[in-house]
Amino acid sequence: MASNKIVPSCYVYFFLLNLYYQIKQKKVHQLEFVQISRHIYKLTYKTVVGIPVKINTWYVLDGESVHIIDTGMKDYAHTQLNIAKSLGIPKSILLTHGHLDHINGAKYLRDNLNIPIYAHEVEAPFINGEKPYPNKAEKETTGVEHQVESLSNNIIKKLPVDVYLTPGHTPGHVIYHHKDDNVLLTGDLFFSNAESLHPPIRKFTVDMGENINSGRIIDKIKPSIISSSHGEDVKYNCDLYPIYKFIYE
């Protein structure tokens, strides 16, 4: 039986080879780049954002087009740029929300790729510096103030992923579902390990109760894989959310 898995281009091969030698020479630390489904690649690295944390960002292929989902920290933006260009033609940056560890590389990528940045219309004002998050006194400094566009219905129709509003961690937090691959990219809706789901850090979450309720969306979508911004990918099963809700609600 023929495999549906896309074979990476020679550009991806040489990028990975170069990355391997950089890691061996200790120029890049604790960085991993993997293909998690036919159309989706994931970059993972460990850094410190107040606390030590693992950050995942994604690349969604749509023919020759590449959509970057979350940008992580600016220290890794050049690596992200090279990955995106090695996979195809970068078309957009899609944000799950506007926290630093998801948007810090957006300015570099936008300036060098000349592509639009999108977020949910509820989230865009916080990213654009129009108002602070409800749990913060000061507005965000994102570097892309007044450069983030709302995910209108016309934009969403052209994307290879469906967009779902999942408020709680932030008012306009969204997740992205790739129907063909049945992979759900959940941002900070959850933290995860290989077998279970956990809530995001309370200190950075606007409304934890609302966030936990938003998590029920996984039982509607029933994805094969749940990939969060912080942690390991999880295979969906019908017990995941009930256990999560029972423990943390």
TrEMBL record:
This is Metallo-beta-lactamase family protein. Transmembrane segments: none annotated. Residues 54-230 form the Metallo-beta-lactamase domain. It holds the Pfam family Lactamase_B. It comes from the Bacteria. GO terms for molecular function: beta-lactamase activity. It is an enzyme of class 3 (hydrolase). The keyword Hydrolase applies. Its EC number is 3.5.2.6. PANTHER family: METALLO-BETA-LACTAMASE DOMAIN-CONTAINING (PTHR42951), METALLO-BETA-LACTAMASE DOMAIN-CONTAINING PROTEIN (PTHR42951:SF17). Keywords: Hydrolase. Gene3D superfamilies: Ribonuclease Z/Hydroxyacylglutathione hydrolase-like.
